[in-house]
Design goal:
Mean pLDDT of chain A: 96
Oligomer: heterodimer
Helix content of chain B: under 10%
Largest sheet of chain B: 6 strands, mixed
Order of helices and strands of chain B: EEEEEEEEE
Distance between the termini of chain A: 39 Å
Distance between the termini of chain B: 28 Å
Shape of chain A: globular
Structural class of chain B: mainly beta
Largest interface: A-B, 28 and 27 residues
Amino acid sequence: QVQLQESGPGLVKPSQTLSLTCTVSGGSISSGSYFWNWIRQPAGKGLEWIGRIYTSGSTDYNPSLKSRVTISVDTSRNLFSLKLSSVTAADTAVYYCARGVTGSWYWDNWFDPWGQGTLVTVSS
Amino acid sequence: QSVLTQPPAASGTPGQRVTISCSGSSSNIGSNTVNWYQQLPGTAPQLLIFTNNQRPSGVPDRFSGSKSGTSASLAISGLQSEDEAAYFCAAWDDSLKGPVFGGGTTLTVL
């Protein structure tokens, strides 16, 4: 079955750009009508959706992060990536990538599966 | 502050039935479907319930979901020790134009 794995630096300095990659295995990122997401979770807190990308390249971002986020996809390498600029300590979190699945309507969608997550700490 | 509201904690004894609530608004739960995720300690969330009340393959029928108006509930019957986890609700939000989550409920099996 499809598996997702996040990778990237675990420590980023304030004001710099956080960069993560999610590698998809066990299936093609281009197959099926899926979309590919980034979600984060600060320690001991809830989940926050960052954004998503379709393999067509179309993206949607959380308005609260939109000015700092870029999500891209590389179908030839079966992966998608996250860039978050001008980071601060508030961006310290476990970052998850997840496949998005749509049901009968565009608003009927869910995340399955998820990657194991990677902790990114913003500190000098 | 999460868009969807969940109680931070819940508890029950083995074999008991527990419910976890999730409250939203007309722009999310009131007009869209609800999903639930289970996060076992130290692991990533995994899908537990989708489209209000559908269970993915492999999820025991002890878990059930329901929705009414702007609220949703997750029920766990025949509580087991391995059900100790955090549970998150989620729904599409028409104002955000994206999914929103609850703050999570940590379930303790006494």
